[in-house]
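Predict the 3D structure for this chain.
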Amino acid sequence: MDGSGPFCFIEWAWLDVALFGFAFNWLRLAHVEIKNFRQLHSKTAGHPEYQITPGVETTTGPLGQGITNAVGMALAEKLLAEEFNRPGYEVINHYTYAFLGDGCLMEGISHEACSLAGTLGLGKLIALWDDNGISIDGRVVSWFAEDTPKRFEAYGWNVIPNINGHDAQEVSSAIAYAKSMRNGKPTLIACKTRIGEGSPKFADTDKVHGSPLGDEEIAATRAAIGWPYPPFEVPREVYALWDAQERGASAELLWQDLWQGYVKAFPDLSSALKRRMLGDLPKDFDKAVVALIQQTVDQKQTIATRKSSQNAIEGLASALPELLGARLT
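Done. Predicted structure below.
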């Protein structure tokens, strides 16, 4: 889950080199669409857009929305696992990852969502914080000086501080450590980075947050990081290292074997889970909605909107067990 616009381009590169979800058509899309980054009608927008780019499951435009979506997805995993998993059949068993920056953490919605994640014990949520102290307006110390690790510890999160965000092995080890704790807490990994790393003139400044480097600085950056390849050219060995098709197919086959056993052992549960995964409504849901509306009309109550919201949620919950909501009374 990406909550940071500047990180979005990395997502498109990942989808290119890993060939995730695109079969063989993605190669053509990569080399055409990546060049159209942030252009009107492009499939590679400046923030992920649902139903525009294959592989994108939700839109994360406003700051804080990415981490909040991640909390929702981690909550869904936890609830589905508790309801449907059975001994020997962990058909729901995955982690949710989120990338977020200082701008995301400034937003009130991130406070609310991350506090809820700690309270609910979403232990399979791992957030990687791009801790570079820079936003689009400059250094954040003048307006965002709180101790973020202590904030998350207060929420009930594990915190892994001072990870070198430019060291892939160090980040990978931090993720492995987060998974190994198994204490029912979500984890924040504080990745220390320098924005624009490699740019001789603009590294560690807000100048690289959302503006092109320009031809001269791009050439200087290529020389500084030792990247001799032309623009938009990815060496074949990089594709080979990232190609996850064979590994993904093997993992899917193992899960399908597990699922077939689950279907035979728990036909009712598997049918209910399949319906939810397909996004279908229960068979008699329309009747339940009509009955609830008629009941509401007949009662003719004058009540607060928060109470009417509660009545709607409770009235539909029995017909739609996956429905989540809050009672505001």
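The chain is about 50% helix and 10% strand.
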